[in-house]
Amino acid sequence: FRIAVLISGRGSNLQALIDAQQAGALPVEILLVASNKATAEGLRKAEAAGIPTLALDPAVYPDRASYDHALFSRVAASGPDLIVLAGFMRIIDPAAVAGWHGRMINIHPSLLPKYPGLKTHQRAIAAGDTVHGASVHFVTAELDGGPVIAQVELPILPGDTPDALAERLLRHEHRLLCHCVAQIAAGRITLGDSGVLVEGQPL
Ligand code: GRF
């Protein structure tokens, strides 16, 4: 089972996938790591693991549609079964998303459908929530709005700051993402017409 990973920054979720794969716990081949930022730390992590990388700068394309067309053409050419968005901080053109229906997932640091978009930790704390978490979902044209595959929850502690909460959540994100990729690679999780299927049954 072959995956491509799209990132924009640090790449700790990417590193978790690499570590799981190298430990023999995730039977996938990571074909390519692509980023919209050439300086993304995650690209260095990919290089260190011997994974081919691609940095494509949106600034040299006239608009989102042409950038996404170029990016997803290059990603598709590498031949992945699944695209994993792991901290890829861009909205994707619906035309590019459409070609990957049921074959592209994203990890998002909130309990979707709560808090799509940015600053999720800050928003959860400001709302007085006592529980926060992360979600992995299939990607659709709606930002952070596709069918949820699995979530992890953790308590918000008194006095929590967005940074402290984000850091605590990150370890859980890593496990959640590896778990979901493994389940999809094993063919246990798919996207049907009416939503996520686990071994052919609605979630
Ligand atoms: C994670 O919190 C992920 O959920 C969000 O962006 C962050 C990426 O972190 N979409 P990293 O680059 O994987 O370290």
Automatic annotation (TrEMBL):
(6R)-10-formyltetrahydrofolate binds at R64, M89, R90, I91, I92, N106. Pathway: Purine metabolism; IMP biosynthesis via de novo pathway; N(2)-formyl-N(1)-(5-phospho-D-ribosyl)glycinamide from N(1)-(5-phospho-D-ribosyl)glycinamide (10-formyl THF route): step 1/1. Keywords: Purine biosynthesis, Transferase. InterPro entries: Formyl_transf_N (IPR002376), Formyl_transf_N_sf (IPR036477), GART (IPR004607), GART_AS (IPR001555). One of its GO terms (molecular function) is phosphoribosylglycinamide formyltransferase activity. The keyword Transferase applies. It catalyses: N(1)-(5-phospho-beta-D-ribosyl)glycinamide + (6R)-10-formyltetrahydrofolate = N(2)-formyl-N(1)-(5-phospho-beta-D-ribosyl)glycinamide + (6S)-5,6,7,8-tetrahydrofolate + H(+). PROSITE patterns: GART. HAMAP family: PurN (MF_01930). Belongs to the GART family. This is Phosphoribosylglycinamide formyltransferase. It comes from Tahibacter amnicola.
